[in-house]
Design a protein that fits this description.
It contains one helix and twelve strands, in the order βββββββββββαβ. It is mainly beta and 164 residues long. The radius of gyration is 17 Å and the shape is globular.
């Protein structure tokens, strides 16, 4: 029933009769349901920052990947969530910067994302910030600050085939 286990976290599908069956999965910690429902069909990355857990999930389909990032507090309660732009590849090259920041990229791009966690949170309603938030988080404090530095266009992997 569980699709993958990472550091005690795993995902479990809803029963086929459940209305959320095709849309979301249950997040488990050490086999215990947290009452948190996440998008995606796999956990892409888990990182502990300060007293928070960052859980990145992915839904991989033929044309691209959908990505989401969830922030859980020390009591495993959902504090914040963002929907990332669609990228063709998976999250990669994660680097931690201090106790409250990470940077990462996605395969198939040279873009670099920086995520900072704020314990107290802040109110922010800029159009770019609102586009990243799922509906239930539109009117909540932001605990994750995201910024992106666009990189040069990705040219793909080098062709290592011998053409002679």
């Amino acid at each position: 029933m569980t699709t993958r286990d990472l550091g005690g976290f795993s995902l479990a599908r809803f029963p086929s009769w459940h209305p959320l069956h095709a849309l979301k999965q249950r997040l488990l910690f050490n086999g215990r349901q947290l009452g948190v429902h996440v998008n995606g069909d796999d956990i892409d990355h888990i990182q502990k920052l300060d007293s928070f857990h960052i859980i990145a999930t992915v839904y991989d389909y033929f044309d691209a990947c959908n990505h989401w990032i969830y922030l859980l507090d020390e009591h495993m309660k959902l504090k914040d969530a963002v929907t990332m732009p669609n990228y063709f590849g998976f999250l990669q090259d994660v680097e931690q910067h201090g106790h409250d920041q990470i940077s990462f990229g996605y395969y198939g791009t040279h873009d670099r994302w920086r995520l900072k966690v704020e314990k107290q949170g802040h109110w922010r309603y800029s159009p770019g910030d609102l586009l990243l938030r799922p509906n239930r988080f539109l009117s909540r404090k932001r605990h994750m600050l995201l910024s992106c530095v666009k990189g040069p266009k990705w040219q793909g992997e080098p062709d290592n085939l011998d053409k002679s």
